Amino acid sequence: MGFDQFHGNAPTVTHLREMIARDHLPHAIILTGPRGAGKFTLAQMVAKAVNCLERPLAADGLPDFCGLCHNCERIAQADALDLRFAEAVEARDNLREGDKRETRIFVQTHPEVLVIPPDPPQMLVKVDQVRHVIGQMYYRPSEGRQKFYIFSESNFMKEAANALLKVLEEPPSFATLFLLAENSNALLPTIRSRCITLRLAPLTADEIGQDLTLRTGWTAAQKKLVARLCSGAVGRARSFDLNGYLAARQDARLILTTALGTDDHSALFRATEAYRAGGEGKAKTDLLISVLYSILEDLIFIKAGSLDLVHNQDMQAELTGIAAQVSFDWIVRASDGLGEVQNGMRRNLLRSLSLDGYSSSLEL
Ligand SMILES: [Zn+2]
What we know:
The protein is an alpha/beta fold. The chain is 53% helix and 8% strand. Helix 16 (328-346) packs antiparallel against helix 17. 35% of the residues are buried. Residues 52-54, 65-66, 68-69, 71-72 line the site of zinc ion.
């Protein structure tokens, strides 16, 4: 329990902890990094370390958190953000129509730490959410040392961004705002200039592999594959649905081998029949499409001789065979065609037919 549980990006983590040690945490921190790099986890850790009732020192002499005290425990209830977010959305859905419109989504499990997720269905931070932050951030903390406001995805509506700007001009001394973003360019320059920006870099496949060493249920080769597939995102790697991925990849492969004439159509029809209408079918098709994209990308890497970039390394021999049969033009056509399949899904075309059609459009 503590900062040693955070994997990778040691300089950024140390930098934050040194600021906590000096009681010098900035009022607004933009934390950028790819999805799954641990932006939210790190913001939560900082909130715990500042408000921990024990506040132990770690082996390296920097502030840490105990994870067990009343404050750490309550803040940690928001660690499972997806779950808390879904609960908040469900609670709102159960309200009466009029109240529903007035209610904004927040996750708060400790009085000093408020998480502001983007508000569905638009998935943007709305001005009412920022007003709510303004409404409470100027009151001194009562159950901790410092208040934290964590915007878990910094996609602001225009009015919300302008309201936030006012807060950043005159923040109270006892509050810190975290703006988490995949890319800080998504934020207004006027906001960026009032924050410090810290960046979490993607982890290397080796670093992710190390993080997965203790995970049970996967072989060493599977861990290596997951590390490659998650392009540097340790959070994604930890919760990766390997079986789902492998099943989708089997179908993706069938689509390509049928197009190239190495498999007959009946196997493909059997596979695509399982892609049905409805939410579950959509998730299955989305996954299949993303796997197809990653395979097409691998074919390009192989043709270009950049073997170390190949995601599906366990399939490299087979992919090399396919790469030898097709041209760059074919790969471009195949990925354009995937875009059309996605459009077709939006128009609710029958998924199995559109996947069969996609495969035959790629025949040589
Ligand atoms: Zn604690």
